């Protein structure tokens, strides 16, 4: 099959791609329809209604669980404004750059370890 595709022109490959995308969408639509039919049948056999199943909670199954966000400790603090801090990661904040331009060293901005 790969050899056959390699022998096609760019225009022919674009057509194959379009057709393939249409076929994939149709296959997904058919699979959803088939699954819905099976669910309806199973619910009916058990004397349930679809709305009683509360299938909204199943939407979370498609999502990957979120990793907890890492919180990095404050490493540097602005001596003029203690609310301005920096972890030492990423770009230097403006206040760090200003302090460095005035001759202050990063060591002087370090937060004492507890």
Automatic annotation (TrEMBL):
GO terms for molecular function: bent DNA binding; DNA-binding transcription repressor activity; minor groove of adenine-thymine-rich DNA binding; transcription cis-regulatory region binding. This is DNA-binding protein H-NS-like C-terminal domain-containing protein. It is found in: Cytoplasm, Nucleoid. It comes from the Bacteria. Gene3D superfamilies: Histone-like protein H-NS, C-terminal domain. The keyword Cytoplasm applies. Residues 59-87 are annotated as: Disordered. It comes from Thioflexithrix psekupsensis. Residues 66-111 form the DNA-binding protein H-NS-like C-terminal domain. The lineage of its organism: Bacteria, Pseudomonadati, Pseudomonadota, Gammaproteobacteria, Thiotrichales.
């Amino acid at each position: 099959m790969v050899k056959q595709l390699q022998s096609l022109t760019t225009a022919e490959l674009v057509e194959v791609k379009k057709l393939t995308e249409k076929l994939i969408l149709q296959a997904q639509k058919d699979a959803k329809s088939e699954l819905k039919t099976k669910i309806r049948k199973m619910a009916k056999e058990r004397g349930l209604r679809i709305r009683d199943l509360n299938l909204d909670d199943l939407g979370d199954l498609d999502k990957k669980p979120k990793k907890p966000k890492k919180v990095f400790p404050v490493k540097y603090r602005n001596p003029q404004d203690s609310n301005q801090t920096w972890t030492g990661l990423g770009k230097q904040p403006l206040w760090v750059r200003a302090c460095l331009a005035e001759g202050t060293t990063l060591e002087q901005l370090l937060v004492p370890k507890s």
